[in-house]
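Entry for 4'-deoxy-4'-aminopyridoxal-5'-phosphate complex. Fields follow.
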Amino acid sequence: MKRVYNFSAGPSVLPEAVLRRAAEEMLDYQGSGQSVMEMSHRSKIFEGIIESAESCLRELMNIPENYKVLFLQGGGWSQFAMIPLNLMVNSGKADFVVTGQWAAKAQEEASRYGEARIVASSKDKTFSYIPELDPAAFTPDADYFYICMNNTIYGTRYTKLPETGNVPLVADISSCILSEPIDVSKFGLLFAGAQKNVAPAGLTMVIVREDLIGHAKEFTPTMFNYKIHADNGSLFNTPPCYPIYICGLVLEWIKSEFGSLEGMKAHNEKKAGILYDFLDQSKMFRGTVVKKDRSLMNVPFVTGSDELDKKFVKEAEAAGFVNLKGHRSVGGMRASIYNAMPIEGVQKLVDFMVEFEKNNA
Ligand code: PMP
């Protein structure tokens, strides 16, 4: 068996130890004589799986008691609608910072349900930075303030949160969840598609402050109402059982390998540092993001020549470094180096880049 180094932006690499454990338990989960794929979501045994995933998530992210954790389906895109349907319910206004395609899509979707105001954007420089935010420009009676914490396509991340006062801060953490500590108490709602740092595609996690639940617009579809899922412990209908099980294994893996999200962050800084340090001294490759806003998870880079970029992606793939092509909207390259990417994967990629630079100088 030969495994590649997979730099996909999502679905992405999972920890090998987790895949091995899932394989071991595939036919007989802990003596039940069944696979987790086959068992009823109403069984005692699955109850144990979902409860331990939630408690492990609460422990690692230090989620306060007054927040609900929801295991849903529908991906980030469903949250783009679910958030305004549930939260845009008083003034009917919300503020958005547009730092890339995903924040833009969230803003467009919210504008179907209320007044979705853009308070800042980094579109002028192809989303290569996080804009400075002036609280004087914020809407004082907004129902929420929306940011995309880590911008998967452009490789930027917030290192400082906007000061929104009493307006609940809402963040898309799809591509940075569990990569570093986050102070949940500063947010009204956090959500993430699991397919990058947590599990296979199919699971969407929502962490929402209790007082924001139960006020959905009257026409909200049942499945899009947070209250329905909160009241039923994410078991209103059939949840994405298998991704929830893998999520639990990934959380246990983080705990046993890194101890905490502080430990995870130190590991990610070291790993991303190897690639950024190389990019900063290379004569052929360069990173495309303003240094202070660089993501720990998604690292876009270019050579400056489309032809050379193509050659690089092709040769890298042949050498076992796959999915390095940049997003179709920006081109160039992007290495997504989520939690499960081992340090040696990044080190070997850099070694390969050094060789490529030498051979194509
Ligand atoms: N938000 C972010 C930050 C993303 O990276 C993505 C997908 N890559 C989405 C939202 C959309 O998620 P989904 O495909 O799960 O709807």
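NOTE: The chain has a mean pLDDT of 97.
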